C-alpha cells in the first residue's frame, strides 16, 4: 500500500487519527495547475483542542524510555527511505521541485530523523555544587511541552522535519502547521511517517489552515510552550510580537538577502558557476539563495558574460522532465519577481539573460549594473534572479555585503584563502562560507541568521537549546527546615 494513500487523508486533518473538520483546500501542481488532492483545514477552535490534547499526550511521551523515542525516529527515517520515490514525486509535483533539489530535500529529511534519534540518549544535565550539606543539586533539561511548528513551502518536508524530529526526540508533543501550498508533501507525509513508525496517538497533530488565524491562536494558546517558525520576515516578526506578549519562546528562521562576494583574484569560471548555483537552485526560492552577487570591477565583465551564458543554457519546464528549473510556486510569487525585475530595469539595470516569464515559468535572469538603491539589490526576490553589483576594494565589498537589515548567510570566493577568510571574518551573517556560494545546509551545523533573518538556531547540538528548557532540582535525603534568616 502506498504510504500516502489519499483514501486515508482526503479532506481530513491529523489529530492522532484523521478527522473531518468540514473545511478543505486543494493541493495544486504549480507546473500544470492540476489538482493533486484535497486536504482538510483547521481553524482556531481545532488548534486549541489539538494543543490541549497534545499537552496530555506529551506528558506520557516525555516519560517514555529514551530508547523507544529514538526507535520511533529511526523507523521513520527507514520508512522515508523505503517510500522515497512516492514521497519524492509528491515533493516534485506539489512544490514544483526538480529532481536534484528533491533528492537533496529527501536526504536532509532522513538525516534530520537520524540525528534526532541520537538526542534522547544524550546526558540531560549537570550535577551542581551546593552550599547546603546533604543536598543533591541538579540542573536538568526538560521538554518545553507542546511545540508549534509553522513551516514554509520552499523546502516543505525538510524545513518542517528539522523541528518536528528534534522536538519529538527531546520529549515534546508537536502541532505542525504546514504551508497551504504544500500540505501533502509536508504535513500528510510527516503524519504518515511517524504514525507508521509507532508514534503514540496525540503526540503529533497536523493542521493545515489559514496562517493568520492559526498564528494568532498559536501565539495565545496556553498549552503551547514554544514556536518554531520558518517563513518570511514580516510574518515572523508579527508572530514574534504576539508570542512575546505571552512571553512565549520562538525560534525564527526568516528571510535573507544574501551576498556572494567575488574578489579580483578568482578563477572566474568557477565563481560564475558557483553564483549560478547560488542564485538559481530551486528557482531561487531558497532562504539561503544568493540574492546579491558582488563582483570586483576588474573581473566583472568576464564574470557577467560567463554567468549570463550559464543562465542562457539552463532549461526551464515541468520538474518531472529532465530540466534545470521548474515553476515558481504560485502566481503572486511570479508577479512579485516580475515586478522587482521590471522596477530594477526601469532604474537603469541591464538584462543580460532571462527577464521573461511564461506563467509560473521564469527564465534564470542576470541583471548587470545593479546599484544599492535598486529594488533587486535592496529586497529579497525569492526567484531565479542574479543581480550583479561591482566594487573596487575589499573594504567596499564588506560594506556592501553588510549593508542590509538581513543577516542569514554570506559567501566569498578568492584565489587566496587568507584573503577570503579576512573578508569572511568581517561579514555579518549567521553563516559564512569561504570559497563557496551561499546555499549550504548540513543537519549537524547550527543554522540561522541575525538581524531581520531571525533569532535562534536549529541543528545538532543547538537543538537541545531550542527544544528544551533548564530546570533546577534539589533533593535532600530527609525533610529539612531552612535555617532561620537570623541564624
Ligand atoms: P510565509 O508567507 O511567511 O509563510 C510561512 C508559514 O507561515 C506558512 O505556513 C504560512 O501559512 C504561515 N503564516 C502565514 N501568515 C501567518 C501569520 N500571520 N502567523 C503565523 N503564520 C503565518 O513565508 P513563505 O512564503 O511560505 O516562505 C518564503 C519565506 O520564508 C522567504 O522569506 C524565505 O526567505 C523564508 N524562509 C526562511 C528560511 C530560514 O531557514 N531562514 C527557510 C525557508 C524559507 P500559509 O501558507 O497558510 O499562508
Automatic annotation (TrEMBL):
Q: InterPro entries, per this entry?
A: Ald_DH_CS_CYS, Ald_DH_CS_GLU, Aldehyde_DH_dom
**What is the designated name of this protein?**
Aldehyde dehydrogenase family protein
Indicate whether NAD appears among the record's keywords: yes
Pfam families, sorted: Aldedh
Entry keywords, A to Z = NAD, Oxidoreductase
Family under the similarity heading: Belongs to the aldehyde dehydrogenase family.
Residue stretches making up the Aldehyde dehydrogenase domain? 18-473
Tell me the active site: 253
CDD domains for this protein: ALDH_BenzADH-like
Amino acid at each position: 500500500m502506498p504510504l500516502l494513500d489519499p483514501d486515508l487523508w482526503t479532506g481530513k486533518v491529523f489529530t492522532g487519527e484523521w478527522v473531518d473538520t468540514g473545511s478543505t483546500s486543494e493541493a495544486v501542481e504549480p507546473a500544470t495547475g492540476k489538482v493533486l488532492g484535497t486536504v482538510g483545514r483547521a481553524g482556531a477552535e481545532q488548534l486549541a483542542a489539538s494543543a490541549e490534547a497534545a499537552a496530555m499526550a506529551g506528558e506520557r511521551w516525555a516519560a517514555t524510555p529514551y530508547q523507544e523515542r529514538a526507535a520511533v525516529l529511526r523507523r521513520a527515517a527507514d520508512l522515508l527511505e523505503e517510500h522515497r520515490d512516492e514521497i519524492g514525486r509528491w515533493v516534485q509535483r506539489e512544490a514544483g521541485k526538480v529532481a536534484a533539489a528533491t533528492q537533496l530535500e529527501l536526504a536532509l529529511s532522513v538525516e534530520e530523523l537520524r540525528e534526532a534519534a541520537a538526542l534522547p540518549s544524550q546526558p540531560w544535565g549537570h550535577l551542581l555544587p551546593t552550599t547546603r550539606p546533604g543536598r543533591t543539586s541538579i540542573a536538568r533539561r526538560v521538554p518545553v511541552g507542546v511545540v508549534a511548528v509553522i513551516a514554509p513551502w520552499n523546502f516543505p518536508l525538510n524545513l518542517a522535519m528539522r523541528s518536528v524530529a528534534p522536538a519529538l526526540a527531546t520529549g515534546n508533543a508537536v502541532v505542525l502547521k504546514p504551508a497551504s501550498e504544500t500540505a501533502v508533501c509536508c504535513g500528510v507525509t510527516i503524519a504518515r511517517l511517524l504514525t507508521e513508525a509507532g508514534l503514540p496517538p496525540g503526540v503529533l497533530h497536523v493542521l493545515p489552515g489559514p496562517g493568520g488565524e492559526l498564528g494568532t491562536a498559536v501565539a495565545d494558546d496556553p498549552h503551547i510552550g514554544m514556536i518554531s517558525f520558518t517563513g518570511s520576515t514580516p510574518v515572523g516578526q508579527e508572530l514574534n510580537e504576539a508570542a512575546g506578549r505571552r512571553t512565549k519562546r520562538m525560534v525564527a528562521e526568516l528571510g535573507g538577502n544574501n551576498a556572494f562576494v567575488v574578489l579580483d583574484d578568482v578563477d572566474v569560471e568557477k565563481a560564475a558557476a558557483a553564483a549560478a548555483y547560488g542564485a538559481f537552485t530551486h528557482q531561487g526560492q531558497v532562504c539561503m539563495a544568493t540574492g546579491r552577487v558582488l563582483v570586483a570591477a576588474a573581473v566583472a565583465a568576464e564574470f557577467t558574460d560567463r554567468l549570463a551564458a550559464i543562465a542562457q543554457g539552463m532549461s526551464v519546464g515541468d520538474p518531472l522532465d529532465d530540466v534545470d528549473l521548474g515553476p515558481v510556486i504560485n502566481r503572486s510569487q511570479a508577479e512579485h519577481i516580475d515586478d522587482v525585475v521590471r522596477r530594477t530595469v526601469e532604474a537603469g539595470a541591464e538584462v543580460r539573460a532571462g527577464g521573461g516569464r511564461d506563467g509560473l515559468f521564469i527564465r534564470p535572469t542576470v541583471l548587470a549594473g545593479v546599484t544599492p538603491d535598486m529594488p533587486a539589490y535592496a529586497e529579497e526576490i525569492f526567484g531565479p534572479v542574479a543581480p550583479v553589483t561591482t566594487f573596487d576594494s575589499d573594504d567596499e565589498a564588506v560594506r556592501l555585503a553588510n549593508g542590509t537589515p538581513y543577516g542569514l548567510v554570506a559567501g566569498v570566493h578568492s584565489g587566496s584563502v587568507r584573503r577570503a577568510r579576512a573578508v569572511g571574518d568581517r561579514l555579518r551573517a549567521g553563516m559564512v562560507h569561504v570559497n563557496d556560494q551561499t546555499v549550504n545546509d548540513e543537519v549537524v551545523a547550527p543554522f540561522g541568521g541575525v538581524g531581520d533573518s531571525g533569532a535562534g538556531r536549529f541543528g545538532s547540538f543547538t537543538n537541545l537549546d531550542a527544544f528544551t528548557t533548564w530546570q533546577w532540582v534539589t533533593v535532600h535525603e530527609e525533610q529539612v527546615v531552612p535555617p532561620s534568616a537570623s541564624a
